[in-house]
Write a structure and sequence with these properties.
The complex is a heterodimer of chains A (about 775) and B (about 230). Mean pLDDT of chain A is about 95; it is low at about 110-145. Chain A has 18 helices and 31 strands. With about 775 residues, chain A is α+β, with helices and mostly antiparallel strands. In chain A, helix 7 packs parallel to helix 8 and helix 13 (about 510-520) packs parallel to helix 14. Chain A folds into 3 domains: about 10-65 and about 480-615, Aldehyde Oxidoreductase, domain 4; about 65-180 and about 235-330, Alpha-Beta Complex (Aldehyde Oxidoreductase, domain 3); about 435-475 and about 620-770, 2-Layer Sandwich (Aldehyde Oxidoreductase, domain 4). In chain A, the strands form 8 sheets. Chain A has a 7-stranded mixed beta sheet, sandwiched between helices. A 5-stranded mixed beta sheet of chain A has the order 10-18-17-16-11, sandwiched between helices. In chain A, strands 4, 6, 7 and 9 form a 4-stranded mixed beta sheet that branches. Chain B folds into 2 domains: about 55-140, Beta-grasp domain (Ubiquitin-like (UB roll)), CATH 3.10.20; about 150-230, [2Fe-2S]-binding domain (DNA polymerase, domain 1, Orthogonal Bundle), CATH 1.10.150. A 5-stranded mixed beta sheet of chain B has the order 2-1-5-3-4, sandwiched between helices. In chain B, a hairpin with a 2-residue loop joins strand 3 and strand 4 (about 120). In chain B, helix 3 (about 150-155) crosses helix 6 and helix 4 (about 165-180) crosses helix 6. The relative contact order of chain B is 0.12. The chains are: A alpha+beta (about 775), B alpha+beta (about 230). The interface between A and B is large, with 85 and 83 residues. The complex binds FE2/S2 (inorganic) cluster (2 copies). One FE2/S2 (inorganic) cluster (FES) sits at the interface of chains B and A. The site of one FE2/S2 (inorganic) cluster has 12 residues of chain B, from loops.
């Protein structure tokens, strides 16, 4: 029989590869009617404060994370890292390590498993440099890593009875290196005579746009011009649960991988390939996971090594990275270096911007949003390139490229406003065409008390100077058609919703339940969710704030289908039509009759009813804003900055769970505060190594740094659609804090993090200029 | 105020003031003063110098330990160098995995447990030093059916996201409220300064701590300590 041709329509959706988002056009089935969320204030559970369904497990220590998985006969893996930024391995001998009692397997890193970015360069070098390998650890292909291209690059790995013995074994592996010249600083790597990081050169031009001459002419006619350089260091995700997984493979036909990942479905394929199994033979399990922030997609080199070791030993292997590993080869936010020149007229019109942007992603390309970011001067020019250095490749990190770009342009905007002596928020509003920013700026300004701020930067009396700053951001936050949700209602009234998606700490489990409960008129505790398993319905990886807008529409669709299916069976009992059945307060009612949920479900067939849901485009939207205000106090005698208060206003369409959204906005502000004031990788240019790969020396914001934090959901967003909030909540705070420091003390620090020494240096320079 | 977990005074065998952050364990790792020097030494000893062939240096000796965890006597065979954290997570059967391994160097607080009711970083305590002491982990503070006041407040105030730091915070705060049942916001911040959260739950953690203190006070009005008992 001929199937009628499906009606298709084209939609733009974000595609996230390794956490990096690009928009692509796809065709989806045009199913006509989509369910609707209805007005934001018409919900019973959604858009309210819902306590997390997994919170009791997490506060009692009962939640089992991948790091906590312990299986009978399990071995512990450990990785040996290169101590050099660039070196040739001349000898690798694992004999001594293999002799240590308790060591079960040693493997060397095949050259194909190197961390993203270094692969091409490595392959070329490998051809020319045969090395001597001792011990029994070489892989069959003998494709051993011969050149290391960054400090921390994995070289070998072991599996042992305990992590302590694995540590011993790592130390007993003999590696001889012949150090090669390296370049770990972008500015040095850009010099013509710099050591070659990549065979094709250390600078890769990415894109150019605009007419530079026109921009120069426009700037020349401006009343105020600012020309400056902005730089941000490499910043780390620092998820508390490190990367890694437990591979449960005992030589049979199937395997299970317990992974700390943002993408349950990014695990089985790679794992299967390493183990030599078909993809369907591998199940990925992600019950609970301890933070990702963009760094955890795929099995990574650590997963490949775990599979290798498991295959060798026919035993489960737990390979969780150490904190040092995590800093040295598990990804980071790329650094940035931006040269901006902008001009404005005295009436507050931003006229032109010239931007040269360098992404500093180590061996990777790095990321940086294009200037002029959210502003639209009449004339603008930009050129963007990547500069390669002998450092591990950057990865996506919460709003890849955006805080770097927002910081630079927002500092420039603030400086221009100061130069033409106009209130920076008035200046912003004049130059932001999108008026949603205007209402968010007004809301935030009210909350922080903007009228109290210094009218002249550094103008207040005394050594403790207070100041306020503002900045804005933008993000896509839309979803795509990848999720398949199944709902089952049993005859005893039990409701189970299942989808393979993962909860990174964002509250996926909770809204998964809530959307179903809302539709069926039940309470949260009446529904059980099953997530974090690749044998359940497909789901997208959690990157780019796409989880909610991809998953929630499918949940809603499944919920509606489940409701209709139940109504179809119960309506005859009530003597009404299925569409007339009202689901509320744990009851089904209509026609003057009412049945308790369990009573009603007794009318279902023995197997209950099953309903499936798919993505519905109209249930989600795309494009969010976000404004942050910060107040700080600067001690001009010590240069110390104390954050006082931060306010973030965020549009998010329909907030599924206000409590979790507030938490996530707080988290965005705090990570951004860290980037503004505390965090940054410190490299030794001569030795080529990172000086602070530990929580002792890499400063994370802690309790003592916490200002008062106010997260505001912009309830004037009436889109009746869901959007993600993970990325947008992080973007603007870094610029807001930098601008607050400037407003407080009159010193503009353009190199993050804003540490006391930089403020004191700024004061000194200012003094000198005065005298 | 010194972080309570800095204080090694309850360890008679400890050398004078080792300082929690210089107490490095393992083979051939040397503690040094300045952070950068620390790092360079770590680089040198951990990575560059292979141990003597044959790995003779690893013989640490095994020990049978009896650990009193959450009111139960538990036995395990560990190496003398095994930390209390690793003993609980990797050797006890069934495991006690509420306390998390995050930094393994006494910085983050995710491994916090109570040793004779005092919070310690269990990644810096050797299992063999924890025998004959009362060990309380987050699992011992409350159970799924009966959360303690701090755990309840954490649920209500959404004081957790990924939850990896949560066992540490819950343990630290539960112990602190015993010592200071009526803390100010600043005192709560001070009490948790040895705990990191990367998801950014701090504001809700503070709210939860203050709210738990209120609940405790309401439930046992007589238990309120006097100001002089409160160490500042
Ligand atoms: S793991 Fe013990 S303090 Fe971080
Ligand atoms: S909740 Fe994730 S680290 Fe604290």
């Amino acid at each position: 029989m001929q199937q009628p041709a499906k009606k298709m329509k084209k939609v733009m959706v974000p595609r996230v590869v390794d956490g990096k988002e690009t928009m692509v056009e796809i065709e989806v089935e045009d199913t006509g009617d989509s369910p609707k969320w209805g007005p934001n204030n018409a919900h019973r559970l959604l858009n309210k404060n819902i306590t997390r369904v997994d919170a009791p497990l997490k506060v009692t220590g009962a939640a089992i994370y991948s790091y906590d998985v312990r299986l009978p006969g399990m071995l512990y893996g450990r990785i040996l890292r290169s101590p050099h930024a660039h070196a040739r391995i001349t000898k690798l001998d694992t004999t001594a390590a293999e002799r240590i009692p308790g060591v079960r397997a040693v493997t060397v890193v095949p050259s194909a498993a190197v961390v993203e970015g270094s692969q091409k360069a490595t392959e070329e070098a490998d051809k020319k440099n045969p090395i001597k390998v001792g011990g029994t650890a070489q892989p069959a292909s003998n494709a051993v890593l011969k050149i290391v291209r960054f400090e921390g690059e994995p070289v070998a790995a072991v599996a042992a009875l305990t992590p302590e013995i694995a540590d011993d074994a790592i130390r007993a592996i003999v590696v001889e290196y012949q150090a090669l010249p390296h370049a770990v600083e972008a500015r040095l790597a850009m010099k013509p005579d710099a050591p070659k990081v990549m065979p094709e050169g250390n600078i890769k031009a990415a894109s150019k746009s605009g007419d530079r001459e026109k921009v120069a002419a426009a700037i020349a006619g401006c009343d105020a011009i600012i020309e400056a350089e902005y730089s941000t260091p490499t910043v780390h995700h620092a998820c508390l649960e490190t990367h890694g997984m437990v591979v449960d493979y005992r030589g049979g036909n199937t395997a299970t991988a317990y992974a700390s990942t943002q993408g349950t479905f990014t695990i089985p394929g790679d794992t299967a390939k390493e183990l030599g199994l078909p993809e369907s033979a591998v199940t990925a399990v992600v019950e609970h996971m301890g933070g990702g922030f963009g760094a955890k997609f795929g099995i990574g080199v650590e997963g490949k090594l775990a599979c290798q070791l498991s295959k060798q030993t026919k035993a489960p292997v737990k390979m969780m990275l150490t904190r040092t590993d995590e800093f040295l080869f598990a990804g980071n936010r790329s650094g940035s270096w931006q040269k901006l020149k902008g001009g404005a007229m005295a009436d507050g019109t931003l006229v032109a911007l010239d931007a040269t942007q360098y992404r500093l992603g180590g061996l990777g390309d790095g990321s940086q949003a294009n200037q002029p970011y959210v502003y639209r001067p009449t004339q603008s020019y930009r050129e963007v390139s990547s500069v390669y250095t002998n450092q591990d490749s950057s990865r996506a990190m919460r709003a890849p490229g955006h805080p770097q770009a927002s910081f630079a342009i927002e500092c420039l905007i603030d400086d221009l406003a100061a130069k033409i002596n106009i209130d920076p928020i008035v200046f912003r509003k004049k130059n932001l065409p999108d008026t949603i920013y205007h209402r968010q700026i007004d809301r935030g300004a009210r909350e922080i008390g903007w009228e109290r701020r210094n009218k002249t930067p550094g103008g207040s009396a005394g050594p403790l100077k207070r100041g306020m700053g503002c900045a804005v951001g933008t993000w896509g936050a839309g979803g795509g058609p990848s999720c398949v949700v199944d709902v089952n209602v049993a005859r005893d009234g039990a409701v189970v919703v299942a989808v393979g998606s993962q909860d990174l700490g964002t509250g996926t489990r909770t809204y998964t339940r809530a959307i179903i409960a809302e539709e069926l008129g039940l309470s949260i505790s009446d529904v059980l969710e099953k997530i974090g398993n690749s044998k359940l319905g497909n789901a997208n990886a959690s990157g780019g704030s796409t989880t909610v807008p991809s998953l929630a529409p499918a949940l809603k669709d499944a919920a509606v289908n489940a409701r209709l299916a139940v109504a179809g069976k119960v309506a005859p009992l009530l003597g009404i039509k299925p569409e007339e059945v009202i689901f509320a307060d744990g009851k089904l009612s209509g026609g003057g009759k009412s049945l308790a949920w369990k009573q009603a479900c007794a009318a279902l067939p023995a197997s209950g009813i099953s309903a499936r849901g798919a993505w519905k485009e109209p249930l989600q939207a795309r494009g969010v804003h976000g404004v942050c205000f910060a107040e700080v106090e600067v001690d001009i005698e010590t240069g110390f900055v104390r954050p006082i208060k931060m306010v973030h206003v965020q549009d998010i369409g329909l907030p599924l769970n206000r409590l979790a959204v507030a938490s996530q906005i707080n988290g965005g502000m705090i990570q951004s505060l860290g980037m503004a004031l505390y965090e940054g990788r410190v490299m030794d240019a001569q030795l080529g190594i990172m000086l602070n790969p530990s929580f002792n020396d890499y400063k994370l914001p802690g309790t003592l740094e916490m200002p008062q934090l106010v997260s505001i959901i912009d309830d004037e967003d009436l889109r009746e659609a869901v959007l993600g909030v993970g990325e947008p909540s992080l973007i603007p705070a870094v610029g807001a804090v930098a601008n607050a420091v400037f407003n407080a003390c009159g010193i503009r620090v353009r190199e993050l993090p804003i540490t006391p020494d930089k403020i004191l240096m700024g004061m000194m320079k200012e003094e000198r200029q005065k005298s | 105020m010194a972080d309570e977990r800095d204080d090694n005074s309850n360890k008679p065998e400890a050398p004078p003031d080792p300082g929690r952050r210089k107490f490095l364990k393992g083979v051939g790792v040397v503690g040094a003063g300045a952070a950068i020097a620390d790092q360079l030494l770590l680089h040198a000893s951990e990575q560059a110098k292979p141990a003597a062939a044959g790995g003779a240096s690893v013989e640490q000796g095994a020990a049978d330990v009896v650990l009193n965890v959450n009111g139960q006597k538990r036995t395990a065979r560990v190496e003398t160098r095994t930390t209390l954290l690793n003993a609980m997570r990797n050797h006890l059967e069934p495991q006690v995995s509420g306390p998390k391994l995050v930094c393994d160097q006494g910085t983050c607080g995710a491994c916090t447990v109570l040793l004779d009711d005092k919070p310690v970083y269990s990644c810096l305590v050797l299992a063999v030093d924890a025998t004959n002491k009362k060990i309380t982990t987050v699992e011992g503070l409350g159970t799924l059916g009966k959360l303690n006041e701090v755990q309840t407040a954490f649920v209500e105030k959404d004081a957790l996201m990924c939850g990896f730091c949560t066992p540490g915070f819950v343990t630290t705060i539960s112990a602190y409220l015993k010592k200071n049942p009526n803390p100010s916001l600043d005192q709560v911040k001070e009490a948790c300064k040895g705990n990191f959260c990367r998801c950014g739950t701090y504001p809700h953690v503070f709210e939860a701590a203050l709210s738990a203190a209120k609940t405790i006070a309401m439930n046992n009005p007589l238990a309120l300590g006097t100001e002089s008992e409160v160490r500042s």
